[in-house]
Write a structure and sequence with these properties.
Length: about 110
């Protein structure tokens, strides 16, 4: 690539890498000499990382989050799982009898 007024720092670092210049300080000095662009070695490092990340053929990393189609499960203190339908049944019972009466029922049964 020829020296142009619109040369970006990323393009300059890319050219330095094509010219087999090694090391961030050396790349910074090479870009300053060839293209008259001031770029810190830290910025060179960031650009190199970004270029490596965007390399064709690389698989992107996994997206964070829950796998699709899986329903969350609540877990009781004894390790048994409690389903959403169980929680909905307790909620309906609480609505019918009231919280205090459901507590008393749990104490009797539990």
């Amino acid at each position: 690539m020829a020296k142009t007024a619109s040369m970006s720092k990323t393009d300059a670092v890319r050219e330095a890498l094509k010219a087999k210049v090694k090391g961030n300080k050396e790349i910074s000095a090479w870009v300053k000499e060839k293209f008259s662009l001031d770029i810190s070695p830290q910025h060179v490092s960031v650009i190199k990382w970004t270029l490596k990340k965007k390399k064709p053929g690389r698989k992107p990393g996994r997206k964070p989050g829950r796998k699709p189609g899986r329903k969350p499960k609540a877990v009781a203190s004894n390790g048994d799982s409690v389903s959403i339908s169980d929680l909905e049944a307790v909620r309906a019972l609480t609505g019918r009898l009231g919280a205090e009466n459901v507590k008393r029922l749990v104490e009797i049964v539990g």
